[in-house]
Queue: 2 jobs
Job 1
Amino acid sequence: MTRQFINGGQAIAQGAISAGCNFFAGYPITPATPILHHMFRELPKIGGIAIQGEDEIASIGMCIGAAMTGATCMTATSGPGMSLYSENIGLAIMGEVPLVIVDVMRLGPATGGATTVGQGDVQFARWGTSGGYPIIALCPTNPSESYTLTIRAFKLAKRFRCPVFLLTDREVVATMSTIESDGNSETESGTEWLKEPDPFVPYLIHELSDIPFLSSYGGKNIVRFTGSTHDENGFLTKIPEKVGRLNAHLAAKIDKHSQEIESVTVDIQDGARTLLVSYGVSARSSLEATQLLREKGMKIANLIVHSLWPVPTNSVTKTLSGIQRIIVSELNLGQYKLEIERIAQRIDRGIEVIGVNRIDGELISPRQIMELVI
Amino acid sequence: MTEQYVSYRDSKPYPFCPGCSHSIVLDYLNATLVKLQLDPHKIVIVTDIGCSGLSDQYFNTNAFHGLHGRAITYATGIKLANPDLKIVVIMGDGGCGIGGHHLINAARRNIGVTVLVLNNFNYGMTGGQHSVTTPHGGITSTTRIGNLEHPLDIAGTVALNGATFVARTTTFDNTIPHLIEQAILSDGFSLIDIWELCAAYFVPNNAFNRAQLEESMSKHALQKGIIHQEKRDEYTHAYRAMASSTIPSVKQPPLKPLFKSNLDNTLRIIIAGAAGQKIASTASTLGTAAVLSNLWATKRDDYPVTVMTGHSISEIILSPKEILYTGIEKPDIFLALAPEGIKTCKSQIDTLTDRSVLYAPRELLPIQTDARISTLDLGRVARKEIALAAVAEMLKQTNFIPLEAFKEAIRQTQRPFIANESLKTLDKLSTRG
């Protein structure tokens, strides 16, 4: 077990480099710049590329281009930059490129509070581009998880050939914490999707949920990439059967594998009627509230969601046994509460879902959550 | 010598309108590629949006068809990640408008890609609206009684901004293959601005024809042919040369628990000072010292965006167990080191009770508080070492982590020159005390 004292930004950069990231393009924006600085310092030393784009559009565009040469790519920004990424996020979804996008959430809208914490991009990340296709988003609560979830984000991006968001926030990125690691990273998922079809066809799938083999520019295959609705060869098509199949595939490759993506930390307690749900920095308050309430003799269950998208419906549903009240803590007006409510309603036991929300740039304190419980 | 690659075209006919110039240029591109005998696996045709954006589908090379105006950004990423590839960007005057920022910056950066601008003075695909190159007075569906704006000189703009090979010509110039060849073989950013006829819109709307197209350059007092050539380091090569001379960093060793702490509870500390007092870095050192003493630590900072002025506040939490919530509602220890910090932390100072201690140098006292006050006697210490000295004094008095751990943290985390200075300051303090 080794210890470091670092912030989430450093942990993300270290995780990226451990995951083999060799291409970073980004545009300066508070509070994501610490990641940019670490990547610019480290990547040239290991033969990687770090470039500052002329804007966020160029930065994510460079990443998408580089990814098609086989580079392992990451970009990092905050809310306003996410807005500029929007169209290219759609391109990454449609062209099926692996890409890690870090969104260090700050208080919005617009310039908002550049140096203040917020968690307002949760639904924005999910619906951040036209068309409404699913994306994957992971959310760390501290620097240790920033490291491990960054590695996982790269794995999922490659596994599913899609953009994967690391939704973090100003507080997790900027706050230094002790991190403990045992040097083990998570186990690899299967590699059957890595089999190269012969002959190579750029977007060939058999089942809708298959992931087409990604061949790089400059290798032995001629590779076509397109952001237009296309057939398996990457040629523009309007044939409804092919169009429908492509679009259904873009959803199915994530939805059908949602259980593989799901990641939560559950701490249930026999007899608990109240479940505290949270994610990111707010989960730290929710956990502390759980500890303090239990010290007072109360029974409390706690759930931290690490994979915000797709919603870990399965894992959440499992924790609801015996629960009558759910308290969702988040630094927005209740964005993830909507998802939890959806699951609670499906169970149809009249579970009450309450939000603890803050939009003033301050953290939710454990006391704030406890006051609602008691 | 027999040619291995007879054509880079596939068998599909072009989709363009009769009379459109695009197919002429694409045939010239094909002829040039055949002449150069480049491996199609090493070529990427990157297209933008618009009629010209359909072009990549008619070539048996690698292809990237992206978003409107952004073709150059993808081309840049591809080139940076694999400099062995030859990249030809095909875009229209529309793409040069919406993506003008990328055009200028790719030229300025001198990234080694070739851009062919199929410039037909309007947006063909969306119904003939005016573009950045529509001539003054030109009739389009959005300039119905004549364009009030003046055209952008694409070739001149990139020539002025660092491109290394730039040509301007019309689709009726049969030297285009030679120009494309020079562009592809040039090392840096190359661009050919090819003026064309849009048979669907600009030609009928303006009674525009070949003769007028060929005259229009001289009418705008613009030169035809190669307008700019220079030698300059291509960005990708320059980047790799620079990166190879970068000194690898010495990996920071993990923090070993070399010391012991007698802390059995969570301790919350605020250091409130001002810019220039090294508040944040001293707080990091304190956190590191805590980790070296087998404690858990968190540290968060607050300062204005204009970092060299105003308050600088650090909040540090130390604990024998993992720290969850990183905010501080009631500090146990408050170090008041500058009026700016005291002012910003007014509400936290108000929460202090007689169980907390407020440390402050004499010149900042009195401070209105319920906390016990401990006067810091730091002697003559430089502004940038006030926080360091104050923390060391506080550690000497409280001893929740050994001063030695703080010194070790300085050695492990600061650059040797700065570490030496800091340690000297601490030694001076202890000999005084």
Job 2
Amino acid sequence: MGDNHMKKRMIAFLYGLVIFHLFWLIAALIMKQKALPSPLEVYPVLKNVFAHGIETHLFVSVIRIVEGLLISLLLGLPIGLWMSGSPKINKLLSPLLYLTYPIPKLALLPIVFLLLGIGETAKITMIVLIIIFQIIISTRDAAINIPHENYHVLSSLGANKWKKLRWITLPAIIPDLLTAIRISTGTAISVLFFTETYGTNKGMGFYIVDSWMRISYVEMYAGILVLSFLGFLLFLLIDTLEEQCCKWKSKSGDGKE
Amino acid sequence: MTAFAQIKNLHISFGDNQIIEDFNLSINHGEIYSIIGPSGCGKSSLLKAIGGIIKPEQGEILIRDERQQNFTILDPRYNSIGYIPQHYGLLDWLKVKDNISIGEKIKGVSNPNRDEIIRILGIEDLLNRFPKSLSGGQRQRVALARAWILKPDLLLMDEPFSALDTFTAETSKRLFLNLWKRHKITTFFVTHNIQEAVEMGKYIIILSERPARIVEIIQNPLFEKGSGRTEDDFYTLAKEVRKKLQKAWEIII
């Protein structure tokens, strides 16, 4: 099952890539503007931008995303589990969660900058604000849906609550957790881009906007390409992880690779 | 014969609801006890209390400690209990082989007869599959293996055959009795099916409606003979049980 599936996905991916570049090329040929160079001009520059240190910007951005993700997990997972374990806590926190969840977090950017300054803390806080709600909600919902019988069996084996967490709760919620992370990572990258246009001289957001200001369109496009690939790679990584962790969910799952 | 385990003065309640009232039972080693009672009478709660899953309001369950030659309070941390819930409680994210050994992992023990049990239950070919891809009968056999591999002091089964079709249930019962004849594990078996209770139980415990009390304990003379459903004796006994149930539950079955 695995090989064939991967092949299909790779073909779909390549197909998408070809179509995308075709549209880009046609648009560039029609518009004939400096602001829209064709892929044939941008790709040769990719080599140069790497030679000129775009990777340090890329690295800083990746670190910010990973930090944001880890902090969101570290805070969101226990809160979600806490809510699923205690109806009282759930009742207390749920209204707050539902109230804050739909607020577009980007709108909070000025507040976060005012309160935390425009440094690293504010940038990572913005990422956490976006991801953490998804993590709390999916952790709570997935944990609530675990059949009680699973816990009963472990209770009768004399398992303590840590063993129940390790053998039941955590493995049961992983697929939903990964789905939540996959969905929110895209948004997190967009917001990261935005925050990186302020108060920093490192990061892909800075690089792209800086190139834009210097009217270096080819570099700007190279930056956009690199950031897009970063987003795509993260997506692919989480998607693959998700697939590995979700084998047990399918009815036909024979557990073969 | 000295008792192997004792349930003394057990009361179970959820809030104001009394579920089980004054349950007393002396349990012999290596016997099967069928517990039969009307739906919702608290059979499952009784089983959960014995298995240490819920805390009784009052009373205690004692089990004989061979080394100390006395009775200690049954504790799932120190005693070995095999509990099979109605829907088997398999962990969907673990392969069959890992589900089977979950008890061993948590208890830190291992059973050298593992392969034999797996073979008798006919699940050798399922070891690398996930529970969601199994049929009801297969899932039940996996649950049985999980419990059996622990060589439990007590085996607790909550309506284990009620979710299966008739033919699968028959096969499962036969497999269970095959295993049981090799290693006689003290078993509590909850059911609402009279024929099943008579077929499987050396002792048949009849419970009243909620709050459940023991109405009567019938010693089943047919159990040792291993006679099948077709014999007249079996139907006579089943009829007798039915009459007692009708009287106890004041309903027409």
